[in-house]
Amino acid sequence: MISKLLSIFEEEEISVEEVKINDILVVKPGEKISVDGEVIDGESYIDESMITGESIPTLKENGDKVIGGTINKNGVIRFRVKKVGRDTVLSQIIRLVEEAQGSKPPIQRIADKAVNYFIPVVLAIAIFSFITWYLILGNTLLFALTSLISVLVIACPCALGLASPTAVTVGIGRGAELGVLIKNGEALEISEKLTTIIFDKTGTLTKGEPEVTDISSIGMEDKTLLKMVASVEKNSTHPLAEATVKKAKESGIELLSSEGFNTFRGKGVQAKVEGKEILIGNRILLKEKNIFLSQEVEKRIFQLEMEGKTVMLISFDNKMVGIIAITDTLKGTTKAAIKALKEMKFNIFMITGDNIRTAKAIAQQAGIDHVLAEVLPQDKAKEVKKLQEKGEVVAFVGDGINDAPALAQADVGIAIGSGTDIAIESGDIVLIKDDLLDAVAAIQLSKKVISRIKQNIFWAFAYNAALIPVAAGILYPFFGIIFKPELAGLAMAMSSVTVISLSLLLKRYIPPVKRGAIQKEVTKNR
């Protein structure tokens, strides 16, 4: 692949092997993006279907990530190289799929064990057939040899050996096409046995982008309250703080300088602005500071929390002056995904660090019945283990970054990401797109693959159980039927073809949860 390198002086064409991190590459319409990077100039629609499975091109502009192997559709873009060689998303996907396709699900042990006994049993049947026809029943040597050879030829351990690997290879490849990376065969089989699915809230069920929804001030304008709060919160990197600062900037508010900034871990922050001691936090922090909350304020807090909002309480000089409510909205596919999983009879849990009222409100919006609230990140794995000790087979769906211990503890860890932000090592199953329907699709695909493996094993056993006795001549005394060696060879080949064909049908499989979405894409593209 040739890339166009932009230097200080001019553009020059170089091979992809020569591309280095921080090089600036130019991509024109119709050209393929060679490595991963970040757009620094221009905008264009990029066809990412080979990575995400989405047929509709995605708009990329300044600051957006681009992935090697995707195709630039219409505009000219310049991007700074971030990853090359084995570190690119495409290379990681290829490596992951290759490793997964070489793995064995536990169900394959049945076939492997059967094959160990298969050859001795077949040899015994063939010799017994020869002895019976030639020495006991007195048939000709030719007839007895025909029976012996037919048994040896028609016996097919190949079909048993192909039953699992072909289905796993095709199924995992199909998953990659759908944006679902299944890292090993064991994950396929366990996914088929799942009883419980736990979803992390922030960034998984919700967008992970908190927004200010309500400002209630006491004795001042809402804009003044927001200005003072944002002037304190600009010193913090907490998502709630960032939401407050963002709201202030959107409102055209110029922030003030602050001093003496202090953080109360898990409770709030404090600083001085224009001589006022400003405290921002939850109910626990304000009670520790002996700040009185009136009945009217308590009522407002209760109302906001019942709406699924996180409440920030604000005091100036130890006097309650206002409330700011922040919410993190559900993703567009959350409700549909939860509904689909409930129809599949799974127990669905939501786990979060939020207080119980806020957590229950959000769970209700999503359609989730079971809530694990006020759980610290380091304790999520413990909650997973508690359910496992009750006999549940648990999948944990998280963002693959903060949820690593829980993903590892779960029977199946499903890491949900987007594009280049995928935490490739985080789960047993990795979702390329930030779409919860893909989590459902992964489980449905796993069930289909394991079902197909069972079908393959059944037909392989059925073929041998039915035709080996016929080849041995069991029907000859009654109907005069016996297999000639050439027909036995044809039948043997057909058994392997049947197993392979059943596995290849997975190539066209569309998980039920994706059928509507794919049909819409087809309609749009017409």
What are the defining features of this structure?
526 residues, Calcium-transporting ATPase, cytoplasmic transduction domain A, seven-stranded mixed sheet, 4 domains, 19 helices, disordered C terminus, single chain, Rossmann fold, alpha+beta, six-stranded antiparallel sheet, 22 strands
User: How many DSSP E strands?
Assistant: 22
Helix content: 40-55%
CATH class of the largest domain: Alpha Beta
The CATH level-2 architecture of the largest domain is identified as: 3-Layer(aba) Sandwich
Total number of domains: 4
Q: What would you call the shape?
A: elongated
Strand order, main sheet: write it out: 10-22-21-20-11-18-19
Rg measurement, Å: 32 Å
Number of helices: 19
Transmembrane segments: 114-136, 142-163, 457-481, 487-506
Subcellular location: Cell membrane; Endomembrane system
Membrane topology: Multi-pass membrane protein
Domain P-type ATPase A: 11-98
Quick recap of the structure?
Helix content is 47%, strand content 21%.
Topology:
Blueprint: E1 2-6, E2 11-15, E3 24-27, E4 36-41, E5 44-47, H1 49-52, E6 58-60, E7 65-66, E8 71-72, E9 77-83, H2 89-101, H3 108-136, H4 141-154, H5 157-177, E10 180-182, H6 185-191, E11 196-200, H7 201-205, E12 211-217, H8 222-233, H9 239-250, E13 259-264, E14 268-273, E15 276-281, H10 283-288, H11 295-306, E16 310-316, E17 319-327, H12 334-343, E18 347-351, H13 356-366, E19 370-372, H14 380-389, E20 394-398, H15 404-409, E21 412-416, E22 429-431, H16 437-471, H17 476-479, H18 485-504, H19 512-525
Parallel strand pairs: 11-18, 11-20, 18-19, 20-21, 21-22
Antiparallel strand pairs: 1-2, 1-3, 3-9, 4-7, 4-9, 5-6, 5-8, 10-22, 12-17, 13-14, 14-15, 15-16, 16-17
